Amino acid sequence: GKGFGCSINGSDVNMHTLHHNGTFETLLVETLPNNVSSDECSISISSEERIQIVYNTDDDLRLARLAEKNVLYQQRTWHLRTIVEDVFSEGLKLEIDSESKTHIFFVDVDDALRHVWFNKAFWNNSVLDSGPIGGDIEVKIDEHNWFHIVYLRESEGELALLKFNDTQEIRQVLTRSSTITEAIGMDLDSNNIEQIVYSNSVPYLCSF
Hints:
Blueprint: E1 3-9, E2 12-18, E3 24-31, E4 41-45, E5 51-57, E6 60-67, E7 77-84, E8 88-96, E9 102-108, E10 113-118, E11 123-129, E12 138-141, E13 147-153, E14 158-164, E15 169-176, E16 185-188, E17 194-199, E18 205-207
Antiparallel strand pairs: 1-2, 2-3, 4-5, 5-6, 6-7, 8-9, 9-10, 10-11, 12-13, 13-14, 14-15, 16-17, 17-18
């Protein structure tokens, strides 16, 4: 198969494709004006293999959707849209659920955990945790469209797990310690149970 990634090189926002034969391809998404800064991006691919990239332009967020060559487009074309303004701080994550709905998670300028999503008609915006939270957020969406989010609640020194779907929400404190730092990692096992690692200022790595 292929591997996909995104990067920001100066004012250029790029998408990268690593093909199965080892060749590496870079496609320019956008060249930003000199007075606009960008330092984070996230990429996701839907079940229909439609590629989306979200990146910050200062404290705004812009979403890029790639239209492949077809009867309407003679070449691969990016559709760009600014979706939120004056709110982004750090910790950008983009995920697409099984219904091909776009979900974006990040730490906002108030150090809160924010969720922005598109229901195929309009954009929605909510605060999941008023914080303050750390800038390292891990997000997974399972095949049943349960959201699994792990992050650090800084003031309490809590490693928190938030799970929700359209009708239910579960919040857990996994561990609490003043020595917890970030570098959080998470994946789901075959039963959709979170497998989590995090770092500690005491020199060892912890996991669940």
